[in-house]
Design goal:
This protein is an alpha+beta fold and 910 residues long. The chain has 11 helices and 26 strands.
């Protein structure tokens, strides 16, 4: 029924095997990516376990005959749980019979009856009963009404769960069910598998007890209901956690006794048939998810989750949800070949008290886990961006248009790094828009470069880890290939050795079979001869017994007739004596009457002495005459009776003679019949001997034909075996070729993936190098710009000094007697040659507005030609100088100056 795996190494091996074989896993979440193996355990504690459990699962596979599967005593609240597969050809049924072995009547109340479908799909039967257990829960209230009740007399037996009488279990079908009962005294329960139509109560007296199988899952246990609780609340702030059930550590298996084996010790490995109530308290500040995670292998069953809200607007309210795993969700069972399958059992809030109700489903495997995962761990939130308002006419330092706003990543919402990308808006009132845009662009460029470097490092680390994994995988694949080749060689050697051993054993078995058949044929012949001889002797004994019985019957008949005649004579004699006694009594009565009359007469005579004297004497005379007449009549009657007695005696003697003659005639008839019967028996014995000889000849012929047919069948079986062996070898070769091709395909895919990873790493490396080169050039350009700005600042200071000197000269000229204006000075010195002052600028140049960032980004042909400070010629006549400046042609020095002050745009890759 169940395959319990208690060690995690087995489960891990199953997961690895699933990865190699391409198992499609049913996962609602990628557990490995969120640190499944680092989850904290929340060990449950046993609070209570009550009620009696009678488990019937050994033998799980019933055959070749039925019988009693399990039996035990229930006193009080109890449960009968059966789980069996019919391995017999004909349909059978499950029957449950209760026996009262006490000296007093006992009442039994049946509280619940559940049965699954009978099907060869074991998972379907197990999950069907698991679903019905939750859909039709047991009413445990004190005033719960039973389905029905019955009273069992002392030493009496009665059938319960009569619906099972009409539920046939076909060959290879699994059938499981539950009966919850409540008894008022000890009751001995039997679970049997019987043919359809057989009376279970009558069969319970003579049906045999079937032996327990190697799983040993039957017996009487304490703990049909188990209450458990997690003492440490789950904290959502501490990451993922799990509660493990059915591991025989925190959740131990229940112990019991097998009353069919003199109360031998047994264990319910898996706690099958036990109803669980598991409570999990929680706390924290964020929602979490509950997942079901099978560890021991495939699992298909149902769970009920109750969430008691202990905070918020729904405080005190309870939500109840039922989840079904397997069947309707498109899978047979969850956890086939892996420990990373999972199924979501709902979303809950921190502080909810979770209560889980379930019963380990039949055909499923333990242990199992319930995973509690905070929402932030189960669903990591994405990065978001914020918008920084920048004027539409401002471009960044690289010449990118800002489009009135710049999107800047600021990290996960609510995270501890959420303020890393925040923009300091306090400086916006002080810094100019150009400076702010330049700062934002610089930060964005730095972040992009840092991210590119980090991505390159991460890609290199991933590539290195992947290379190591692929090298390890190739090594393991090579080891597996060598091991497979070695195993194949060993298998072929073992097959050859096995074939040789089988051939020798087949020859030996054939010789033994022939000898056994010859011995059996000789034994059958002797047995047939003995049977015929025994039949003949039995027939002779029967005839002799019949003859003796007939003689005894005739003797008994004669004795009966004689006894009847004797009884008749005694009856006649008794009748005669009774008649004599009757007559004597009548005479005595008459005499008494007469004496009474005489007494009356004497009294009358005394009264009338004188008047009646004569009459008295006359009456006395008449009385004497009457007595004389009566005496004469009595004598005549006695004579008559004597004559009748003589006649009766003569009739008796005649009847006795008749009966004797009849007896002699009957004896003669029986003797004649005996002689005729002996003649008939002799004729029948002769005919039987002839029939026996013919039958023996027929059997010899049939044995010869059967031997020929057996030889032909043996030859056919040998040919089929050779053909099957050839097909098996061909299939194994094809499978080996397929596996080799699959291994080659996997190796090619890994090699292609490795090449693709190397190509991507090289592209990332080239991109990083290009980005680094761009950043280097941008840095050099920024340094050149800074140098130009320093030179401009130095020229400005020198120009300021020159302006101050000119201002002093102007004031000195105004202080003189004549104070010519600037135009007069120009007229006076109009014929003076231009004087060039190195590194000097004019007042108009100094007071000229500086170009903005947007003006510097105009096209080359639209720019105003400008000279560097160290290349400008300052005229004594500023008007003439200005006019000459306006007429100065555009030179390569102006182009160089514009290139240095307005560097070309640089755009990052990608």
């Amino acid at each position: 029924m169940f395959s319990y795996k208690s060690r995690y190494c087995v489960a891990a091996a199953m997961a690895a095997m699933a990865a190699l074989t391409g198992h499609v896993e049913a996962r609602d979440i990628d557990l490995q990516s969120i640190g499944y193996f680092q989850f904290s355990p929340l060990p449950p504690s046993l609070v209570s376990q009550t009620d009696t459990l009678l488990l019937s699962d050994s033998p799980e596979y019933v055959g070749p005959v039925g019988g009693t599967l399990s039996a035990g005593t229930i006193n009080g609240n109890g449960r009968i749980y059966f789980y069996h597969v019919n391995e017999m050809d004909l349909p059978h049924k499950i029957a449950i019979v209760l026996e009262n072995q006490t000296a007093y009547p006992t009442s039994v109340h049946v509280m619940r009856q559940l049965k699954s479908v009978a099907t060869p799909n074991y998972f379907a039967a197990g999950r069907d009963l698991s679903r019905k257990d939750l859909e039709q829960p047991l009413n445990e209230s004190p005033d719960a009404r039973p389905l029905y009740s019955l009273s069992i007399p002392p030493q009496g037996r009665q059938l319960i769960f009569s619906d099972l009488e009409n539920t046939p279990v076909n060959r290879d079908a699994l059938f499981t069910g539950i009966v919850d009962i409540k008894t008022e005294g000890p009751i001995f329960a039997r679970v049997m598998m019987l043919p359809m139509g057989m009376d279970p109560v009558d069969a319970s007296h003579w049906v045999k007890n079937l032996p327990i199988d190697e799983i040993q899952l039957r017996g009487t246990y304490t703990g049909a209901k188990r209450n458990m609780e997690v003492t440490t609340p789950f904290d959502t702030a501490l990451g993922g956690a799990f509660v493990e059930i059915g591991n025989d550590r925190e959740d131990t298996f229940i112990n019991g006794v097998d009353e069919m084996q003199n109360k031998a010790f047994v264990r319910d490995r898996g706690n099958y048939g036990v109803s669980y109530t598991l409570k999990i308290p929680t706390k924290g500040n964020e929602p979490f998810r509950l997942y079901f995670n099978p560890l021991g292998g495939p699992y298909s069953g149902s769970f009920m989750v109750k969430a008691l809200h202990q905070q918020g607007a729904r405080r005190g309210q309870t939500d109840t949800r039922t989840y079904h795993i397997g069947g309707e969700d498109g899978i047979s069972a969850l956890g086939e070949g892996t420990i990373l399958d999972s199924r979501l059992l709902g979303n809950y809030n921190a502080g909810d008290l979770l209560t889980l109700n379930f019963m380990p489903a039949g055909a499923s495997n333990l242990p199992i886990r319930f995973l509690l995962i905070p929402e932030s761990l189960a669903n990591p939130q994405k990065h978001q961006t914020i918008a920084v308002n920048v004027p539409k006419d401002v471009k960044d330092i690289l010449g990118h248009p800002t489009q009135g706003g710049t999107q800047i990543p600021v990290g996960p919402v609510g995270g501890k790094d959420g303020d890393k990308g925040a923009v300091d808006t306090k400086k916006s009132t002080i810094e100019s828009p150009a400076k702010r845009a330049e700062t934002i662009a610089h930060e964005e460029t730095k972040k992009l470069s840092d991210k590119a470097v980090a991505d390159v490092k991460k890609e290199a680390q991933l590539k290195k880890a992947k290379d190591e994994k692929e090298a390890l995988a190739r090594k393991k694949a090579e080891e597996a290939r060598l091991a497979a080749e070695k195993a194949e060689m060993l298998r072929k050697a073992a097959e050859a050795k096995h074939a040789e051993i089988e051939r020798k054993m087949a020859e030996k078995a054939e010789a033994e079979r022939k000898a056994e058949e010859a011995r059996k044929a000789e034994a059958a012949r002797k047995a047939e001869m003995a049977r015929i001889e025994a039949a003949r002797k039995a027939e002779a004994d029967r005839l002799e017994a019949a003859r003796k019985a007939e003689e005894a019957r005739l003797a008994a008949e004669a004795k009966r007739l004689e006894e009847e005649s004797r009884i008749e004579a005694a009856r006649i004699e008794a009748a005669r004596k009774a008649e004599e006694e009757r007559k004597a009594a009548e005479a005595k009565a008459r005499f008494e009457a007469q004496r009474a009359a005489e007494k009356a007469a004497l009294e009358a005579k005394k009264a009338e002495e004188e008047r009646l004297a004569a009459e008295a004497r006359a009456r006395l005379e008449a009385q004497r005459k009457a007595e004389q007449e009566a005496l004469e009549a009595r004598r005549a009657e006695e004579a008559r009776k004597a004559a009748e007695a003589r006649r009766a005696e003569e009739a008796r003697k005649a009847e006795a003679a008749r009966l004797e003659a009849q007896r002699r005639a009957e004896q003669e008839r029986l003797e004649a019949a005996r002689r005729a019967e002996e003649a008939r028996i002799a004729a029948e014995a002769k005919r039987a001997e002839e029939v026996r000889r013919a039958e023996e000849a027929r059997r010899i012929e049939e044995a010869r034909r059967a031997e020929e047919a057996r030889k032909a069948e043996a030859a056919r079986i040998a040919a089929e075996a050779r053909k099957a062996e050839q097909e098996r070898l061909a299939a194994e070769r094809a499978e080996a070729e397929r596996q080799a091709a699959e291994a080659r395909r996997l190796a090619e895919e890994r090699y292609k993936a490795q090449l693709e990873a190397e190509r991507k790493a090289e592209a990332a490396r080239q991109q990083a190098l290009a980005q680094a080169e761009i950043e280097r050039k941008a840095k050099e350009r920024a340094e050149a710009i800074q140098r130009v700005r320093d030179q401009q600042e130095s020229a400005r200071r020198r120009a300021e000094l020159a302006r101050q000197q000119l201002e002093a000269e102007r004031k000195a000229a105004q202080a003189s007697k004549r104070t010519p204006s600037f135009s007069e000075l120009d007229d006076i010195h109009g014929d003076t040659s231009n004087v060039t002052i190195p590194n000097a600028v004019s007042i108009d140049e100094l007071t000229k507005p500086r170009p903005t960032a947007s003006q510097n980004t105009r096209r080359r042909e639209q720019r105003q030609p400008q000279l560097l400070p160290n290349q400008q010629n300052v005229q004594i006549n500023p008007v003439a100088n200005e006019s000459q400046q306006d007429q100065m042609p555009y030179t390569t020095q102006n182009e160089q100056q514009n290139d240095e002050e307005n560097p070309p745009r640089l755009y990052p890759l990608g």
